[in-house]
Amino acid sequence: MCQACSNYQEVEDKSSMNKYCRAVLTYYEYSFAAAQFFLSDLKDDTGASFWCQPETLRNIADGSFSDSFITKKEESSTFSYETTDKAIESCDMISTCVTHNTPVLGGADVVAYHFLQDESAPAVHGRPEFTALLDGYEFWFASKHNLDIFLARPKSFAPQLGGFCALGLSGSDPMLLREPSPKSLDRVPVDVNVWHLEEGKLYLFRGAGAKRIFFDTLHAPYVNSEKNWDTLRIAAECLPSDEAPLFNTNCLYLSDD
User: Fold this and answer.
1) CA 128: distance to chain centroid?
2) What is the pLDDT of residue 81?
3) In this predicted model, which residue has the larger pLDDT, 53 or 140?
4) In this predicted structure, what is the pLDDT of residue 16?
5) Is the dihedral of CA 209, 194, 252, 199 positive or negative?
6) pLDDT given for residue 103 in this prediction
7) How high is the pLDDT of residue 127?
8) Contacts of 230 (CB under 8 A, 6+ apart)
């Protein structure tokens, strides 16, 4: 990581930069996941031009990283679509599953999943004092540390398929007589305690049985789920762009299986 920073052409003061780069390593040494996302950003010119700026490294070294990054985030269009109040209200009318009056996944900390020992561990609930906004949706976190990690790469930690059941969206759910529509997202709820990480991406399921079916019987299961979710999301016709997300805030329950 330090070598990547040192070689980056926009950094003029190599000696002071290396000092701050060491501080960055110290900052991240207890968080392998955070370090990995840091490294992946350095492979991209846009990410490297931010992370390798002496000002950024200095802010991390003196502990003011969070405030400086939030300021940087607010000045950038990279992490947020133009989600208007009218668009939010329109989406809220489509389904109670995606209303903006409660946090995504009922407040489950989407970063904490990446640090749980195995997939039998339950979700970690976030707290309202550690809140991030993404496209009008609130995400809650259990700590400021997890909040900072999310702010650095929100799209990497946001749940896949909007936080709805991966099996239900695959088209192969034996429990569904009809495919879900934007107005019937309650057919594909999730138990936030039944989850899976695939290449750093978070997927959720309505229960352990649905998770078993998804992996045991479906060929290339993610492909259909992601394709169907994109089609369904765009069909909602309430979003400011075809790339903007919908997130599950209310269609949650604790399964028995």
Assistant:
1) 17
2) 37
3) 140
4) 52
5) negative
6) 96
7) 96
8) none
pLDDT in tens, 159-203: 999 999 999 999 888 888 677 888 888 989 999 999 999 999 999
d(CA 43, CA 108): 30
Look up residue 253 and give its amino acid: Y
Type of residue found at 210? A
Q: Which one has a higher pLDDT value, 24 or 150?
A: 150
Structure tokens at 170: 């695959």
CB 180 within 8 A of CB 169: yes
Nearest Cα to 37, choosing from 105, 102, 114, 94?
Answer: 114
> What are the DSSP calls for the chain, one per residue?
-HHHHHH-TT---HHHHHHHHHHHHHHHTT-HHHHHHHHHHHTSHHHHHHHTSHHHHHHHHTT-HHHHHHHHHHH-STT-----HHHHHHHHHH-GGG-TTS-GGGGB-TTGGGGSSSTTSPPPB-EEEEEEEETTEEEEESSHHHHHHHHHSHHHHSPGGGGSBTTTTTT--TT-SS---GGGGGGS-BEEEEEEEETTEEEEESSHHHHHHHHHH-SSHHHHHHHHHHHHHHHT--SSSTT-----SS-B-----
Longest dimension (CA), the chain: 64
pTM for the full model?
0.67
Name residue, tokens 């992370």. Answer: 51
